[in-house]
Fold this protein.
Amino acid sequence: MTEIPGQRPPERRAAAPRPARARAPRRLASAAAGVVLASTLAACGGASGGPPTLTWYINPDNGGQAELAARCTEAAEGRYRIETSLLPRDAASQREQLVRRLAANDASIDIMSLDPIYVPEFAQAGFLADMPEDVADRVTEGTVQGAVAQSTWGDELVAIPFTANTQLLWYRTSVAEAAGLDTSASDTWTWEQIVQAAEDQGVLVGAQGIRAESLTVWLNALVESAGGSIIADHAEDPDRLELGLTSEAGDRAAEVMAMVAGSDAVGPAFSTEDESGSAAGFEGENGGFQVNWPFIYAQAQAGVADGVLDQAVLDDYGWAVYPRVDADTPSAPPIGGVSLGVGALSQHPDLAYEATECITGDENQAYYMINEGLPASSAAVFDDPAVVEEFPMADTIRQSLEQAAPRPQTAYYNEVSGGLQRSYHPPSAVEPGETAERATELITAVLRGEQLL
């Protein structure tokens, strides 16, 4: 599902759902073997009169969520059991399947693994069960701010933060040093500094210029890092929704995007470059800098193990928080991951919320981060020695998640993101002011039913 240092200024953060109380210790569930995959399950006990069965609709992974379901079934000690039902691979298809079921009053959906970009839509549609205040207090205590923000709608926590993900700035240490950049202050580097260093050294800057969700991710991070937001007001109302693109922050974001795309530091296929393309360029002989998700480190390790990447290349990897737009303002990095929603029609919402607290316990989040490669939402997990061994950049990831800003939060995310991709592509043609006005007109017309994407 579509997905690093310093605290973001409080005025740019999403409001916390409510003051946190002292948090009870997270449940440490013991491991259990196996879990049944099911596509259609009763929300109550079987004919044998056994404990209630909770159905958890999961996104595809390598078995990690099924393992957590088994662990939490054992930890429940007979109060309930969790069975998993597999959703399609891509986030849009996952949304479609869940929306159809929920709109048809399907009571079998107890827990859902949601791409956070769809949390506002599900909340506004009434698809999510009301979260008890004590649950909200516990699951937000010690949770990175970015994960709380993207699980919040209408100033209320409506989903449980589970995994979080963020983009870092990755750089070749040798390149940065040769360019005269101070690697001890890499968290303060700006996009202009990085591009200038890359051009001076004849190396590449990797970013995602493809017309896809990746472009929305990049644009949103630039606007938020410049102190603005793509959605300025009335995110819940398509007729009144106000965009913040035609603003000083919007202009700065456009300037940076055009500067990067028009520089000599990007490859000739930049307008089709996705995360894999950025990673490939960074691993090559002209690798210099890139913004990308943490998967690229494990990918490089696998490349070394397979003999297709030199160990010296991996040893040259450096990492830092996402680049700044302005030198005196900390960046607002991208964030992704998975939030857990409890279905409004669940026959056992209290048990479902209890299960989500078990699933997102620190021990289980650490297991999932190590085995699935997706960062946790709990800040404490980044101090786990086993996590640090697998993720030597764990502190930087945690810092990034504290600074991170969600993508545009609205029940009409598809329309907003689609309009942005259409208007801001190719990035080399973006112009401050003009592109923002064109995007604003298009998205407004689409939301009002006057135009199709």
Notes: Confidence is low (pLDDT under 50) at residues 1-47. The radius of gyration is 22 Å. The first helix runs from residue 64 to 75. Residues 396 and 427 are 28 Å apart (CA to CA).
